Amino acid sequence: MKLPNDPAMLLSLVNMRLRDQYKSLDDFCASENTDRREIMERLAEVNYYYDEAANQFVQK
What we know:
Elements: H1 7-20, H2 25-32, H3 36-44, E1 48-51, E2 56-59
Antiparallel strand pairs: 1-2
């Protein structure tokens, strides 16, 4: 899957998929053949981190 370059679009896409389709970020990444580290680094640049309990990226 090609991830959006815009951080807001990336955040929206990933959180929507986590909410609607996947039980974890690892499940999302495996299914979409996407690098977890890349997503986490790109969203950390705009002060978001993955909250496992919420299964969402949230603002720091």
